[in-house]
Amino acid sequence: MSFFARFAQNRGALFGLLILVMVVALALLAPLLYPESPWRMVQRPFLAPGELSGFPLGTDTMGRDVAAGLAHGAWVSLLIGLISTLVALAIGVPLGALAGYFGGWIDDALMRITELFQTIPSFALAIVLVAIMSPSVGSVVAAISIVSWPPVARLVRGEFLSLKQREYVEAARLAGLGHWDLIVRQILPNALSPVIVLASLMIATAILLESSLSFLGLGDPDVMSWGYMIGAARTVMRQAWWLSVIPGVMILLTVLALNLVGEGLDDALNPQLARQRH
Amino acid sequence: MSNPLLRIERLALALPEGADRLYAAENLNYELNRGEILCVVGESGSGKSMTANAVMGQLPPGVRAAEGRVLFDGIDLLRLSEPEHRKLRGRRIGMIFQEPMTALNPLMRIGEQIAEVFEAHGLLTTRQRQARVIELIDEVGLPDPRSIARAYPFELSGGQRQRVMIAMALALEPELLIADEPTTALDVTTQAQILRLIKALQARRGMAVMFITHDFGVVAEIADRVCVMRHGRIVEMGTAEALLAAPQEAYTRALIDAIPGDALPPEREAREEVLLSVEGLSKVYRSGGGWFKPKREVAALNDISLTLGRGETLGIVGESGSGKSTLGRCIVGLERPDAGVMQFAGAPLENRSAALRRRIQMVFQDPYASLNPRIRIGMAIAQGPIANGVAKAEALAQARTLLATVGLDEAVAERYPHEFSGGQRQRIGIARALALAPELIVADEAVSALDVSIQAQVLELFVRLKRELNLSLLFITHDLRVAAQICDRLIVMRKGLIVEQGSAQRIFTAPREAYTKELLAAIPGRDRGVSHLATVTAG
After folding, report:
1. Number of structural domains, chain B?
2. Is B396 part of any domain?
3. What is the pTM of this model?
4. Counting C-beta atoms within 10 Å of the first and last residue's C-beta, which end of chain A has fewer, N or C?
């Protein structure tokens, strides 16, 4: 069975993929659909959805188009989620690989560093980092990556610990392959499937983290994001609940979609386990 | 007896769509009488276990009974509902599994696990259950039943756990006992004890036993009647003595011939030139040693000395925990010994150079774990030479030649490991070891995971390659029958010590040490071997 066929066996994953494709399309089309800045005030404030044609989702407290904010926010959320996950992988995978492969004092040292990061509540750390570095897209990405790499390092280390004792790795070592070849060519490809699954879930977590930071006013002041929209609307929750709920639902759907896709990837990459589960 | 306890009629078990064949088993017909031991023999994939699962009502998901009947004392087991079947399981049909290590709950005491069987069927009071548990533990021959009942599974050895499994299966005095490869995971001496136990219990209780195995030695040891299966069909069926003495079908004969039985290894000339010498090798494994627990030390090797001549095959024989694998791993350089000197063709093996490392290669036990699932096999073979400086194209071309040498098609170099069977994978593993043109190959249980007929082919390959390439072989195995086929000289190990060494023939004909004698006596089917069938009936 092909990879996609196994993936598609999980209906939820297919549904998740559909939502994800729609969100990505929205993000990509945002500059075409709403060429003007989402920060521009275009109508009177507090327009309810559907109240005025041309503003299907209404306007917010300052008279900005909610639909435009949503579309541009999708771009920011996805970009920050993706980049910060890639950076976290770039930190976590090598550290975990080295710790697991070499063991001994290298493992001890790297794992103590990892634990240091794990013992600090990740959201608090992210807030402190963004506050120190002053809010911008770069600092938000950096903060999210720094708080989310430890689980990656742990996972990769665990995989390496078990895989390095496999007979094919020992055979390669006997054949005279060096550490680099053993790590990159023999072990890493076999350790990647759980990492891919984790990464898809990490994107979801990163989107949540970014939204939370923006909600607290720690997002980049120049870019529109879903978290900012909720944060700005929280004071008018009673008068205009939709201003919080609409971006909230977008976050919910995107995170749900990523989780579903992650589960589908898990099934597709570990067909043995998937068959038992269903 | 006119009315058999178990009668299987035209049974067909359908595999899920997309499997390599339509039926796991088809057109099965056999009977099992009370007080009889029927051995169902077959190689992997023959459908022998699947039939037992059908009787137990535990077919894996996707497999279903397509046709036929399974009559147990007149009741069709295939038509029973799950609750009805459950009532029968345990109470009238007991089962023992292959893997005693995983069949017990690690968090429950042995006594509780056995008592649970009564509890599940709502039998006896708590006090009676405890008394029965002690009786059962005693009956399966475990020492000091009271302390065993309080023990956790990890405190028992494999053989003891298998006895506990038997006690659980026997708890409700079933009329039929199904034993699915119950001795395969055990050492040979333990296997002999378990076989004796099953036979004694069967005789005492008059049970019917359906014994599933791949080993004709075990069949000769225990069976009243034999049913040989292949590819889901019955090949041949008959009484043990008739079938073993005069098999009708070519397949049965091939299986029986594939077992060395009591064939003696021929005397082979001694070799002059010493290739490998090992002196005073010791290795201690240390584990634990935290703040609150003491260190555990296991001496895997204790002052081992041996020599291996050029072109010689030296067999290292021992049961699990004898240190035989550690010895092989020290010699190839996967483990570092604590003490001792190893010399290879005059050069010391400590901190060996890449050039020296290349000359000693290894063939591993598990053909499924020894090939990287994500690397094409041509590359898997070529990567050693490439790492040693051979150009990539040349190494890949050489890999193809090697595949032909080990009896595979050259074109398979482009495939991934999962497309091959166990025997083929083991050939690939051998080709990989040969790629570096080694002088010594350490084969660690290299044929243990293979079916007997495949085993014979791979052993033949070893012998041929050894002759053609003038290789020396260090052959590590737990199976004396395999060692007898291939080795010039044998070393018997136990608990990290060399018990006895000598020419293979001398060890087989005139063992000096009690342990060696015990090992030889434990070989299933040896005394009542394939050619000495008069005694089978008496057993």
Report:
1. 1
2. no
3. 0.79
4. C
Q: B513 in a domain, yes or no?
A: no
Sign of CA dihedral A25, A27, A28, A32: positive
Strands B497-503 and B489-494: antiparallel
CA angle B182, B96, B120 (to 5 degrees): 165
**In this complex, do B361 and A166 lie within 8 Å of one another by their Cβ atoms?**
no
What DSSP character marks residue A112? Answer: H
Judge: A168–B371 Cβ closer than 8 Å, yes or no.
Answer: yes
B369 in contact with A at a CB cutoff of 8 Å? yes
| pLDDT one digit per residue (tens) for chain B, 539 residues | 457 888 888 888 887 776 667 788 888 888 888 888 999 988 877 888 888 888 888 787 778 788 888 888 888 888 888 888 888 887 888 888 877 777 888 888 888 888 888 888 877 888 888 888 998 888 888 888 888 888 888 888 778 888 888 888 888 888 889 988 888 777 788 888 888 888 888 888 888 999 998 888 888 888 899 999 888 888 888 888 888 888 888 888 877 776 655 556 666 666 678 889 999 899 888 766 566 666 667 788 889 999 998 888 999 998 877 888 889 999 998 888 999 899 998 888 888 888 888 899 999 888 888 888 888 899 999 998 998 888 999 999 999 999 998 888 888 888 888 888 888 889 999 999 999 999 999 998 888 878 877 888 888 899 888 888 889 999 998 888 888 888 888 999 988 889 998 888 888 888 889 888 888 888 776 654 444 333 333 32
Number of domains forming the structure of chain A: 1
Is there a domain that residue A275 lies in?
A: no
**Residue-number span of the structural domain to which A138 is assigned:** 3-269
> Is A62 within the bounds of a domain?
yes
Counted across chains A and B, CB pairs separated by less than 8 A come out at 66
Q: Is residue B274 part of a domain?
A: no
Please answer yes or no on whether A167 and B380 come within 8 Å at the CB atom: no
Pairing of strands B347-348, B233-239: unpaired
In a domain, A274, yes or no: no
- CATH number of the domain encompassing residue A188: 1.10.3720.10
